[in-house]
């Protein structure tokens, strides 16, 4: 966490200075904060940086636990878009029913120590209310 945001991406992904700066700007990191140490970034900024790093590694499988917790609306939309674009298999644990419905194709719930498949998360959430 002692490296700057720019140094981390520059050294981890070997993109070159201009490409690194461009990718970070596109991901929502203005040039003015790219030299900020990772440790000094907000939780949302760190989450956005982590998802950018995931994007650059191009995984074919995600396991995510409450991935939208520290993301702002723009970050959530970017994450949804990225997951759908990657077409990677995903296991996502989330209480964000809109997010899960937007990215999911199958939905499961654990209720009374039993795993069950459900049609849509909204049906389950309405039952709880």
Report on the structure:
It is a single chain. This protein is α+β, with helices and mostly antiparallel strands and 129 residues long. It has a domain at 60-129: 3-Layer(aba) Sandwich (Rossmann fold), CATH 3.40.50. It contains 6 helices and 4 strands. A two-stranded parallel ribbon has the order 1-2. A two-stranded antiparallel sheet has the order 3-4. Helix 3 (43-57) runs parallel beside helix 4. The protein is elongated. The mean pLDDT is 89.
Q: Which architecture of the domain at 60-129 would the CATH scheme give at its second level?
A: 3-Layer(aba) Sandwich
The main β sheet shows up as: 2 strands, parallel
What Rg is obtained from the alpha carbons, in whole angstroms?
17 Å
Give the overall form: elongated
- The portion of residues forming beta strands comes to 15-25%
What proportion of the residues is helical, as a percent range? 40-55%
Order of helices and strands: HHHEHEHEEH
CATH topology of the domain at 60-129: Rossmann fold
What structural class do helix, strand and pairing data support?
A: alpha+beta
In angstroms, what separates the terminal alpha carbons?
42 Å
What is the mean predicted local confidence, pLDDT?
Answer: 89
Number of helices: 6
For CATH, the homologous superfamily of the domain at 60-129 is named as P-loop containing nucleotide triphosphate hydrolases
Tally the beta strands: 4
Spatially, the strands of the biggest sheet line up as 1-2
Q: Show unreliable segments.
A: none
Q: So what's the CATH class of the domain at 60-129?
A: Alpha Beta
């Amino acid at each position: 966490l002692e490296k700057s945001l720019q140094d981390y991406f520059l050294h981890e992904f070997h993109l070159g200075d201009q490409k690194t700066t461009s990718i970070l700007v596109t991901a929502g990191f203005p040039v003015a904060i790219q030299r900020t140490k990772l440790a000094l970034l907000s939780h949302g900024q760190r989450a956005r940086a982590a998802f950018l790093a995931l994007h650059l590694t191009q995984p074919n499988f995600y396991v995510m636990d409450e991935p939208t917790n520290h993301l702002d609306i723009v970050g959530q939309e970017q994450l949804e878009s990225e997951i759908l674009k990657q077409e990677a298999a995903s296991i996502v644990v989330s209480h964000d029913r809109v997010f899960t419905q937007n990215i999911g194709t199958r939905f499961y719930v654990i209720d009374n120590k039993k795993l069950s498949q459900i049609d849509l998360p909204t049906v389950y959430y309405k039952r709880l209310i």
